[in-house]
Amino acid sequence: MSAKTDSANAVMIDATHGALLTDLYQLTMLQAYWRHGMEQTAVFEFFVRKLPAQRGFLVAAGLEQTLQYLEGLHFTSGDLAWLANTGKFESSFLDYLGELRFRGSVHAMAEGTPFFADEPIVRVTAPLPQAQLVESRVINLLHFQSLIASKAARCVLMAPDKPLVEFGLRRAHGAEAGLLAARASYLAGFVGTATVAAGAMFDIPTYGTMAHSFIQAHDDETSAFRDFAVTNPGSVVLLIDTYDTEAAAAKVAALAPSLREEGIMVKGVRIDSGDLGQHARRVRSILDAAGLQDVTIFASGNIDEYLLNQHAEQQIPIDSYGIGTHLDTSADASYLDCAYKLQEYAGTARRKRSEGKATWPGRKQVYRRENAVGIMINDVVALEDDVREGSPLLREVMRDGRRLEPPMPLSEIRDYTLEQLGTLPPSQRRLRPDAPYPVTIAESVKRLATKAVSTMPR
After folding, report:
1. Are residues 255 and 369 in the same domain?
2. How many domains are there within the chain?
């Protein structure tokens, strides 16, 4: 992907590496910091102010891409030439940007950790210009994957014994969103994705069947089914709702014996439209009557955690699901009220006092307590040096601009996430929680907030 201005002397740039993936005000602020020598240590924290309606928890995700971005942050000669052409920046400042690298530290919750409002999931400590510059992209990466992982986790909880496949590339808001949605959903417990590039990039299992156009391109459904089966004998899942779902199921039942004689087994059928529950019951009866009890039913089309819950309650005989639009857009909660805010500068706590958006200052840690059987009881947000009972959730993952450990395989992050979902209290696992999970702001934080306000400009 490239970008340029409309002027005749525009400079072509590669914007994919990230240095210009920022808001203009980050750069105008940096120029002011540079001019006035404001380069002392700053501490920023990323957190969510409040959970979306009907959500009992969120899932932290996107840390890996954030660390990759921070490690590789730099301005190319093309970036600097483009910035020079805007006429907004001094040449000496652009020289400064040419040397800028991220040399700070990062503390973060592990990807896959459930978290709640007011809890920092990432803390960045670095010279002010570095910590400031990365704000927009850090929010961009953490917000999106945490949003999608949280939606995916709710689906997994509503269908714990059903394989779920991410199907949403075509409805995702751009290529990166589609790829990262596949990663976030797999992290949260989905078994795989239909997006081939995501399989290649993240080593995620890929799944697919056929489109209605494949059926329509043939003169009859049976021919379409046979052609697909003999071409893809190891993965025969046949789409049966192009014309008449139940009639197509009967055709599959009639075709299966001859395919079996050729050593080809029909693994499943897919339903993509109509009342999925009613169709599934009828199709199951047709397949069972033909002795095809091992042929599974895969459903897709406008599926979300609410429909999964309904199907579970009604004992609908669907074996697995492909979930796309509602997942990749997080349709019922399309954004998180999140922020990346300055909590300390030059050794002094800083607090934003804006109405409805006041922050808790200082470097903070989140302590989580569990009961004897490993179920979460409550969290406490305390200052970093105010050690509390429970497990500290933030740990140092980057120092001096370099990560402290190699990336964890995504499959291991997925295992950790599923383990963590098992520690959620019953109320938080429900579609509509009875009460919010208890998160306490420690007195040490409150005292620091009072002190910060008393010493702040008015």
Report:
1. no
2. 2
Neighbours of 400 (CB within 10 A): 10
Q: What is the largest CA-CA distance in the chain?
A: 84
354 within domain boundaries? yes
Instruction: For residue 306, count other CB atoms closer than 10 A to its CB.
Output: 16
CA dist., res. 378 & res. 81, Å (int): 52
Q: How far apart are alpha carbons 153 and 431 in whole angstroms?
A: 11
Q: 359-394 pLDDT, tens per residue?
A: 999 999 999 999 999 999 999 999 999 999 999 999
Measure CA 378 to chain center: 24
Residue 249: left if φ>0, alpha if ψ -120 to 50, beta else—which one? alpha
| 20, 95: one domain | yes
Q: If residue 365 lies in a helix (H) or strand (E), which one and from where to where? A: strand 364-370
Question: How high is the pLDDT of residue 4?
Answer: 43
In a domain, residue 378? The reply is: yes
Amino acid 14: pLDDT: 56
pLDDT band, residue 453 (cuts 50/70/90):
confident
Residue recorded with tokens 């969510």: 48
What per-residue confidence (pLDDT) applies to 454?
76
Q: Which of 275, 300, 325 is the last residue of a domain?
A: 300
Distance CA 353, CA 124 (A): 21
Average pLDDT of every residue of the chain: 95
- Judge whether 169 and 195 are in contact, CB under 8 Å: yes
Residue 10 is assigned to a structural domain of this protein: yes
Write out the residue range of the structural domain in which residue 287 sits: 208-300
Q: Is 208 helix (H, G, I), strand (E, B) or coil?
A: coil
Q: Name the one residue in this structure whose structure tokens are 């001019």.
A: 35
Q: pLDDT value at position 319?
A: 98
Q: Name 118's bridge partners.
A: none
pLDDT-derived band at 16, boundaries 50, 70, 90: low
Which H or E run includes 49?
Answer: strand 41-50
Same domain, 97 and 216: no
Identify the DSSP state of 335: -
Q: How far is CA 428 from the centre of its chain?
A: 19
Share of the chain above pLDDT 90, in %: 93
